[in-house]
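Final report, closing paragraph on structural work. Over the funding period we assembled a curated collection of sequence-structure pairs, and we close with a single example.
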Amino acid sequence: MLAQVSPWYAHAAQRLAAAPAHALTAPARMEWSTCPGLGPGAEILGRDLRGKHILELGCGPGHNVAHLAKHRQAHVTGVDLIGLQVRRARSHYGHIAGATFAAGHALHHLQATGRTFDAIYSVFGAVGLVAPALLLAAISRRLQPGGVLAFSVPHPARAGRHPSTDGRPREDYVTMPDRTRLPVARWEFDTRTWAAHLSRTGLRITSAQELRHPHRAPWPTTLLITARKR
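Its predicted structure, as stored:
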């Protein structure tokens, strides 16, 4: 029931109505923003990902999972809250060895699985949409020592906004395929605040990058953070 009242359910339903899912070729590149080709690719998860176990929190239609499984020979699980998205992902990329998809809440999946991972990542996914104190602690528990967490979130200073200073989520909006906008609660921190949250769970930031959409200057649009488990 929670998933079906989510704006992400509406987003997936509109996508599916507009174009029935079908098998696709794995993308040649991993993306961290909504602008293809902007910023780094899969290398921030590790130089050699062959045989590594990787988890995506909020996989959507599965493009990044497919890239990592096909072109980096990793074993990748994509989790998404929305069953329709998981259906799309399986229709697109279920034929690719090493790519698996599961429906469920990111936090619940982390708490229930007995597996540990070499890397966990989120691209405008669960990180920022689930209470950081709970989610980051659960991520840390499921990372191998030395494992990598990487996540991209909407930049807290995009379009002249300011980072949150009270530790609470605030209202943001998700643009639907039909261009309508639906509200969503999001934690919007600057790098220093993310670093503090990560440190409390045994994770240390190794890089923070501000990505700028070429047509949306002067503000950065995406904050991309990588961290490593101590």
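The two ends are 38 Å apart (CA to CA). Helices lie at 7-18, 63-71, 83-93, 106-112, 132-142, 191-199. We thank the funder for supporting this effort.
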